[in-house]
Amino acid sequence: MGGPRKSDVAAPAEKTPREGQAAYLAPALEKGLDVLELLARQSEGLTQSQIAQQLSRSLQEVYRMVVSLERRGYIRRGPQDEAFRLSMKLYDLALAFPPIEMLTTAANPILLRLAAETQQSILLTVLEGAFIRTIAYADSPAPLGFRVRLGTSSPAEHTASGRVILAFQPPTIREWNFDALAANGIDRAELRRVRQRIEAIAARHYELIAGENIAGITDVSFPILDGRGQALAALTMPFLQSVRGRVPIQQAAASQFKAACELSNILGGTPPEPEFPLSDPLTRAPHPE
C-alpha cells in the first residue's frame, strides 16, 4: 500500500559527455563561429545568400550573424562587391596569444647574438593588417649601421619583412592584402609585380633585395613559421655593405637562417632550407660579395 519503494524508482539515465555538452550550447554563438570557419576556408569572399546556402541556414539567420560580425570587425565586405571576407581582427587577437609573447621574449638574446656575429642590425617584425610592425630589434655593434625604431610600422608590400610574411600566409589573408592594395589605388602593374615577387619568395623561401628603400642596404629576410607552416613573424637583416665589413653577406645570411630556424622551433615550425648562395628570388641575380 504506500508509495513506491526507493529501490523501485528508476534512477535518471546518466548523460554522456556529448549530451552534457549539448545542454550548454549557445546557438547564436555556434552560428557565428560557423560563418567565421566557412569564410576562413574561402580564397574568395561569399555573399550573404552563398553563406546561407553553404551553411543550410535561412537568410534571416545569416543576416543577423553577418551584421554582428561586421559591426565587431571580424568580417568585411570587398571593395568592389558585396562578398564577405575575414578581416584581420582574428589575427590581431592572435598577436596577444602567448606564442607571440613567447617569441618576443625568446628573440631578444638570439637577435643580440646574431647582431654580434654578423655585425649588422637585426629586426623581428609581425603583420598588422596591411602593415608590418617591428616588435624586437638588435642594434649593430659596428660603428656604422642601420637604425630602426622599435614599433615602427610600414606598408607590408613595400618591405622585405612584409612580403616574406605574406608569402607564408593562407590564401584568404594574402588576397585580403591584395584587395586592400587595389582599393587604395595601387597601379595594376605594381600590384602584379608585388604578386609575382611574393610568389617567388614562397618558392625560394626567403627575400633578398638590394636598394629597395635605401641605397647601399640589401634586405635579407626569412620567415618565422609555426607548426602549420604559417609565418607569425619575419627575421630581417638590413645588410649594410662597408669597406671594412668583416662578415660577407652570404655568411651573415647563413647565420641568420640558423637563427630563424631556432625561433621557428620555439613555435613548433621548421623553415624550408633555401639554396645558398642566396640571390634575388625574382630575378635570380646573384648578390656581389
Largest sheet: 6 strands, antiparallel
Spans where pLDDT lies below 50 across 5 or more residues: 4-21
Rounded to the nearest angstrom, the distance between the terminal CA atoms is: 104 Å
What shape does the CA trace take? elongated
The tally of strands reads: 8
CATH top level assignment of the largest domain: Alpha Beta
Q: Kindly report the CATH topology of the largest domain.
A: Beta-Lactamase
The largest sheet has its strands arranged as: 5-4-3-8-7-6
Helix content: 40-55%
Please tell me the overall pLDDT.
84
Please state the CA-atom Rg, rounded to the nearest Å.
25 Å
- The overall number of domains is 2
Main structural class: alpha+beta
User: Number of helical segments?
Assistant: 10
| CATH architecture call of the largest domain | 2-Layer Sandwich
DSSP strand (E) fraction?
A: 15-25%
CATH homology superfamily name of the largest domain = GAF domain
Question: What is the N-to-C succession of helices and strands?
Answer: HHHHEEHHEEEHHHEEEH
